[in-house]
Write a structure and sequence with these properties.
This protein has 204 residues and is an alpha/beta fold. It has one domain: P-loop containing nucleotide triphosphate hydrolases (Rossmann fold, 3-Layer(aba) Sandwich), CATH 3.40.50. The chain is built from 6 helices and 7 strands, in the order H-E-H-E-E-E-H-E-H-E-H-E-H. It has a 7-stranded mixed sheet, sandwiched between helices. It is globular. Bound molecules: guanosine-5'-diphosphate and magnesium ion. The site of magnesium ion has 4 residues, from helix 2 and strand 3. Magnesium ion is lined by residues 35-36, 76, 78.
């Protein structure tokens, strides 16, 4: 499953240095969880939504006979940008998180500083794979629960347990349609990155 080609971000790069070139943030989650909505609501540029035909050729050994319908799939990505302050510019990538897109993930996570996992409590299954891969890659992430139709049936603690999320991973409620709410999600992630960077610097 692991291609071995994934490049970990330089974990010793202080956040301030990374900000000179912008920070790449990935928003992952299942279809319909609100990725496009979140990227749109916070972006200061008109976000791009690209339909990419991705090929899985090269995954197997003898797939050189050309790419047929079975080895291609159409994937929608979102791209947006937001300045958190004068120094920190976030470049946002919305991307599908389901297992069948695993072949995209190595490239997607290359240079990614952190990720937001968007969760819909009606379909939590879609979240497990993304969380598993992020943990495996060592990419810091926060979990944002997009509340549909004022779904308050599950508390954040219950969702944390259902996802087997360790205590140190921040969780936050959000409404992806509301700019302030989506921005809060990103601030939560940036705070988390900063906390982790400080923890690393103070660890002998
Ligand atoms: N009620 C509600 N609807 C939402 C919310 N976020 C997204 N939606 C709607 O859910 C649908 C799917 O959202 P979309 O952003 O396209 O999901 P994506 O597949 O993850 O990109 C759209 O019709 C959105 O308007 C939310 O927080 N609450
Ligand atoms: Mg979308």
């Amino acid at each position: 499953m692991d291609s071995g080609s994934y490049e970990l971000p330089d974990r010793r790069t202080p956040l301030a240095d990374a900000a000179e070139t912008g920070l790449k943030i990935v928003v992952v989650g299942g279809f319909g969880v609100g990725k496009t909505t979140l990227v749109r609501s916070v972006s200061e540029i008109r976000p791009l939504n690209t339909e990419e035909v991705m090929t899985q050729a090269g995954v197997g050994v003898d797939e050189t006979d050309g790419v047929d319908a079975k080895t291609t799939t159409t994937v929608a990505f979102d791209f947006g940008r937001i300045s958190l302050n004068e120094r920190i510019v976030l470049y946002l990538f919305g991307a599908p998180g389901q297992e069948r897109f695993w072949f995209l993930w190595d490239r997607l996570f290359s240079g990614t500083l952190g990720a937001v996992v968007l969760v819909d409590t009606r379909r939590m299954d879609d979240s497990w794979y993304a969380i598993d891969r992020l943990e495996h890659h060592g990419t810091p992430f926060v979990v944002a629960v997009n509340r549909f139709d004022d779904d308050l049936a599950h508390s954040l603690d219950e969702i944390r347990q259902a996802l087997a999320l360790p205590e140190h991973i921040p969780m936050i409620d959000c409404d992806a349609r509301v700019r302030r709410s989506s921005k809060n999600v990103l601030i939560t992630l940036v705070d988390h990155l900063r906390t982790m960077a400080i923890a690393r610097e103070t660890t002998p």
